[in-house]
Predict the structure.
Amino acid sequence: MKKRIKIFLASSINEFKDERNQIGNCIRKLQDRLIDDGIRINLFECEFFDNTVSIKRKQEEYNKEIPTSDIFIMLVGEKIGQYTLEEFNIAKISQVKLIQVIFKDVKHNKDVEKLIQDINKDDNIKMYTYKTKEDLNLFIEKMILEQE
């Protein structure tokens, strides 16, 4: 392999179940196209992580994956969960190469509005808002291809 791109996908599992599946399918299709170029995409989704009982808090195991990632993608909707926010904060202090926050085009609660204000003050974090799942797919593909 010439290059490996590791992506950590953070979001509320229940709220973004369809989007998470869609992103996974999009990345797998893109991987099939890029493999001949020597590019390997590894997507970390907690759904596919070992969910056996852990001595520590399971979230700690997920959090260890963040600093080793090249891209941190966070999906945000009407609200943001505590674990998703925890993962985001770890990505910021870990200096992940690309932090991409993707907002669903819905009305946001005050916590999400505050997050948007904070992100606007940080040049190292990118934001995108999608309206349709097709928009989301096109954006994900473009974002990954720009990392080549």
